[in-house]
Queue: 3 jobs
Job 1
Amino acid sequence: MPPSTARNLVSLFRSAARLTSQRSVTSAAKKKRSSSSAAAAAAVSKKKEFPPSSADADLKKYVSAIKPSSAAAKHLLKTFKAPPSSTISNPHKPSLHAICTDGVDSDDDDNSAEQMLTHASSLLYDEMDLPWDDEERGDNKIIGNVLDMPWLEKMTNNSIAEWRKEFSRDRKQKWVFKSTQTNRFGRMVNVCADKLGPDAAVEVFGKLGQETGLKEYNSLISICIKKARGTADEDVSTEQIYRAYQIFISLRGKGFRIEEETYGQFLMYLIDFGMVEEFFFFHEIIKADNSDSLPRLAYYEMLLWIRVNNEVKIQELCRAAVADDAEDKSHFQECILMALCESGCKEEFMIVLRTLDITKFTSVASLEGVFRYLGKLLLEPFTERYLLALKKTDIGADNISNFIYEYAISIPNLAVEDVILKFQTLHSKFEVLPTSAQYEKLVSFCCESLKVHDALNVVDEAFKVGTTLSLETFHLILDACDQSYEFNLVNQINSRITHHNLEPKVETFKKMIILHVKMKDFEGAYELINDLQKKGLKPSTSLFNIILSGYFREKNKYRAMDVLKQMEDADVKPDSVTYSYLIANSHCEKDMIKFYEDMGESGVAPTKQVFMALINAYASLGQFEKAKKVVLDERIPVKNLNEIKSVLVAALASNGQLSGALKIYEEIKKAECGLDPKAIRCLIEHFQSEGEIDRSLQLLEELSDSRYWTDACFRIISHCVRHENLRSAVDLLKQLKDKFNHAEIALEVLFDEVFCIFAEKESTDMQFGLDLLQAVKEEIGVRPSRKSLDFLLSACVYAKDAKTAIVIWEEYETAGLPYNVLSFVRMYQALLAAGDRKSAAKILNKIRQDDPHVRCVIKACEETFIRSASLEKKRKKKKKKKKAFESTVGLLDVVEAKTK
């Protein structure tokens, strides 16, 4: 953050403190001058509450019974204007309304209530996601009393039922929360503050009269700080932090104790931006309000000095931690040590560690952090000493097992099987049995690394010692099998579930059916459905949809149609997803119409999947105009329209209609809507000509915050390499490096793939390859890997370029890469291909030929380049002799003709 912002914040904070004090004094003076006001204040003080105004009562009634029509809600949204920013007036008012406002006089209550009606309507409209109809609304229609709005006046009973089902499905996908009033209100605070801003959220809930708790205050502070972090505008950042500070001061004024949940987010913001003066301004406030927070304040102070790289202050805190004789010395040391762990300060960590009494730690989470850092530093002697000390306390075997797990998984560059071995060894050494929780965490660790076989070994060990694992653990393994393409392990997993008497759920069967279908074992999938029915569970439509999609992927339409019969036998009704698969895989328009009509007759309403299937089916049949007309269907919900248009863009681009796809893309942009990232990636994929590279780069900018960016970027790089567009390729590689700056392995793989693409190009000119290598080294600052150089040597073979091969050969030594058997063989191959047999013979003498595979490769090289060259030479010589003989014969014919 710029220094000017820091100065502004200091001034704002101190001005706010003075302003709050002055307002309190002014308010007290007014009360002394007015006897009636004094009596009212006494009554309020006695009752500890403020009676709601009539406007507040109306608003509560409105929010609880609001039933907006589409036209009214749309008009409210059109005329909505956010209220101006507010500041704190009186921190002693009992509702959120008082936090960031200057105070509302009784004369302004009606206007405030009217503003709140507009805010609440806007918020509720956003949350309901109803299919509002723009065409049937008159812009100039006068809106009456909002309390008289009819409820969904233009929806039939069938459409209401279908909407409820769709809305319920979407909500289940997005939200998981306990149905309690406290959690619902907390969620409302977050949603309202996120959509309307903290100021408007404060007004809304203040008008509702909701008793405000510490959790709601902390949520609002967190949103302000999040907005401050997310902006590059200095003024916006300063304003948001000042608002958070206002809420903070109001919270103190209401008598809440300032705990770490409140002040921690403030201090971390100041630490991240290195704002030392502001940090200690807050430090003093917190210390005065909560003296018990001193050890935790020391933790944040250490983080601050580490952030600004003040070695003197860091050493001072470390010495204080070692020499402090206060009663809370152990807690102080604990907090300092955690800051050092999180910041990776090894030397200071060791200084405090040697004087530490690990048994006096107050937090299990802190102990976990210490053992993780011990693993990272490979300090096993300290680990064993502390485990032994903790075992003598009453901390419990479960926690000891947890510390061993945290230590083992934190050891760097340790293979998964070695992590498991270390986990087992330490448990055996300290005579502690792993708990089911630790076994499950170890299985999860294996699954994250896609080491499914190791995960199954851990499961077997757990059951062997009598530990029971949850069904969710097997779900993790099934998911890992899917991601690692270990589909065949599904039978082993199923047998373990059965053997250990675990009761599989429908979700378990679904995951196993997916694996069976992916390895084309459809009979196994049907057997699982039968097993499910034997257990008294009814198969869902989604299980049959998985099998149906599998048959369609295999282009087996006959067996796909048989799935419908199986569904009928099981008394399972097709849903919209079923019909979307049938429509998308139709081979003619007649079949499409039939399936669509069947869907309507069965009472299944079209969903976005059905509309997408229609678009893809029409596009695949070449009926592009009909595909475009699908998006005009009035039954498409407004919230899904942009997503369906994105599918249309992708379908047109994939079927050669790039100009039509770009036209729709431009229409979406003019409407200020965003195109789905998958559609943008599809557009980029189908830009094949050199002249479209600039357009591809523009599209790539729209994917900057998407997980599809890397894939799309690499597609453009591949295009640039194939067409030898060096400048664009290098610029994109720089962006890739910035994105994967902390992932060296991923970055190396990506650069290797670039040189692989060049080698596969089989160019006869190596100049582009050399220029690319030079740019990677000098402009991007990446040292070429062995694989990259191997690919370039392979390219030299096809180009028959011995000179370039020698240049690349020297790059191995420059990069500090020792030559190995494969590099010698590739160099030998390149020299032979170029016809430099003398140099090739020297390389051949350095190749160890004790490996039969190496001998086979050398023999193949000789047959390809030496014998073929000899045969070619003989063929040319024979052709030359034949040509000379024909010339001689022709000359004799001429002489003979002249003689006659």
Job 2
Amino acid sequence: MNVNDTEIAWAILQKNGYARTKDLGEADVILLVTCAVREKAEQAIWNRLRHLKALKARRQQARLPLRIGLLGCMAERLKEEILHREKLVDVVAGPDAYRDLPRLLAVAESGQQAANVLLSLDETYADILPVQTSAGGTTAFVSIMRGCDNMCSYCIVPFTRGRERSRPIASILQEVRMLSDQGVKEVTLLGQNVNSFRDMSEVQFQSAAAPALSRGFSTVYKAKPGGLRFAHLLDQVSRIDPEMRIRFTSPHPKDFPDEVLQLIQERHNICKQLHLPAQSGSTRVLEAMRRGYTREAYLELVRHVRDRIPGVSLSSDFIAGFCGETEDDHQQTVSLLREVGYNVGFLFAYSMRQKTRAHHRLRDDVPAGTKQRRLQELIAVFREEAARANEAMVGQSQLVLVEGPSKRSASELCGRNDGNIKVIFPDAEIEDTVGCKALVRAQPGDYVLVKVTSASSQTLKGVPLSRAALSRSAAGH
């Protein structure tokens, strides 16, 4: 999400005459894009600001003023503290105020602090085509909606990014076509609650019935009728380029109607990989979190997904040490990790966020040491199960989208398979089954068939077999 926000802000600034530099020494403006979901992310920004304080002081002494701005969720959440702490920050812009950046920077040029953190009911930046920050990149993020209505008790997103609103499908398709023309080979559709997408821009669809929730799931808000839904968007996006992979994140488990699962199963370029954020394996904790489902309903959804999409790769989010979590609750999360066997996991210790329902109604009563112990236990179990799931791919051929050289060795390449698992393989000459049939070396953006020879909890290793085409290939067994 921060990558996409950065690209939107940069598109706006570029149109207003700003040029980008990677050299802090020549920058007139430094903008930090922030996150407020966890305390650790905010602390990293405060640390970064401390490093920038000395640079700003040197520039002032040299009469070369430097303006510093904070953008995004932390800016919205902590505007007053950011502006008043040591007067270091000149510009504060919330996630719905990026259009106002040129004006805010102009105010800062006069020596005043400037801020806009107003949340919008309709801002989606639909008319702004983000400028890709990694030129020549093989992957890109496309924002399809902003905000969230779920109001989970631990989550600050509805308060920092506002209510759900979706981009018109036409503008999304335009952006994906542009990325396809630029040679991008994988697009991730992005949103806080991506599969509750609902485009109300076309009048003839405004009375359509709301899709049913996943079996056994509920929501704190009334079903919203009307609009073109996520299944329609996914269908249209997947038709643009048969050589472009499509992913989406982050969904809520409640919003997986069968038509979405059917599309994923049918379309060769929609990745057979789903993010199903569980957060906890305890029904009691899930109720306190206001997630809208029980452990049993979640497991039933996992079984249903695996029935509809054979071989699907699953990832999830988990929070260790939420308010009131007992040792028994924790062990239920451990057992859920073992029962499902995720390929990818994102696990964090709970950190209380102001403004949330948990902050107002619950007590953060699990000691920090206990949170960390439980987190480490969850990580250990996740890695054990992920290693087992990944080891099942040894001996199989996987279609890998090459991203570039491996960070650990210039003689190896790195990419990801359909399940979004990192694959490392030697940079060697391989047969080109797509074009001239001659021997070639794989380049970023190529699809390569790789035979897996070993696996860990996070990585597959293998030997390259041939350069291939997504539309003509499938991961073999």
Job 3
Amino acid sequence: MIFGHLLLVLFFSVVVRSQSIREVSWLPCQFIDEHFEINEEGHRETKYEHRNAGLQFGQPGDSPVHSDVITFLVTGSKVDMRRHVKGGVDSLQCEVRRHSTGGILVRWPGHGAQEDDTWFTCTLRHAEGLFVITTFLRHSPPSNPNAAPSESENWIPVADRETVSTTATMLVLSNTPTVEVGLVKEQTLSCEFAVDHKSAQLTVEWRLQRRGERSKLFGYSSRTGQVEGSGVSAKAIGRGDASLKIPLTKHASEGTYTCSVYVPPLYGSHDIALHIMEPPRVSLNVGPDVSLAVGEEQRVACEAATYYPLDVRMEWLKESTVPGASRMPEVLKQVLFSSHRHHLDGTYSLSAFFLLRPAPQDSGYRYTCRVSHASLQMPVRKSFTLTVTENDSVLWYILPIAFIVVMLGILVLLISKLNTKQALLSPPEEEKVTLVYGTCLMAAVEPLLIWLILRIIGAATQIGT
């Protein structure tokens, strides 16, 4: 039986993958059946059983499309769940359950209803959470005074391969089963409904569950015309639209919203989870290029600001930009974090920083702050590239200058001695001695002068860039 149902599902997914639900007459479903047992302590327990089934759209008396599973035949009515389905049928998840009216013995006012009708619900969900539709299916069992009592009030047993003929009487749907929204944004929570008869006795409510507290946001009764709260248009309710509008989202807007529609004896509701998601704004305290000399240090900080919810992951990475080098980044270990800063609007901020003391081999490396958060599809990255220069010592300039001064002093001394001996030397000899002294002195001083000038020009160029 299970293998046969899997083949049916596989066949269905291949053949009608891109078809609209209006183009098919049968959908694979799971029937979540339930019955009651008395446990060892004498208490009543509910047992659930997953059974293979199918949802078939047609007319009363139609033969089942697949006779080896339970068939819930949905006959024509003013309520048609297929009108509200978006996308192809391959994205649908179908589930049928029994429905209890909770002891409310009220005959459904729709056409063909009987006192002993039994109820089922069919829920269609989009696989990616685009919508959820719950339809109430009414089944009128044939009159049988000798029938054995059912396991639950007004329920009937359903055999394998049986066809259960039903009529859709009411549906409740939401196109926003889960909502993620930022702060100070307008947001509408979708809730629509349809009933198979006019002038229904209708009650609509919205409630919010937040941190264990449940509060009523809106209420409407067609019997009294009374409206409580705000956010829902009474005129729109007359058109089957009970959507709730939140004017400006805030931190307290987060929670589980429940839209309920009550038409005696049926009560339908959907929970809508609203999550506040505010992405972090990431910034660095340095520019895209950082230049440091050996021995210098720089405090580098990365800030993730005004994010929500609290959990955020920050890390610093170091990677080489040299072609052919390893592209696997290194995660820095010596990183410190500030405490979480909580702002008045409910958002948070966090900083991650480290002290950069570069070595010559660190030149050319890229440092990246990577921030991950639930509101981000991809982590945010902010980077800078490091250039390391050698630190020129003052001694390298003092020594050549001192040497030049000494050499000039020697030259002055030699010239003074030469003047005292001018009377003893002939003019040609005096000129020759002066030339020899001057040549030797310039040979010693000239390389140092050239080196000193080049160093000064290089330092000035680095300062200018």
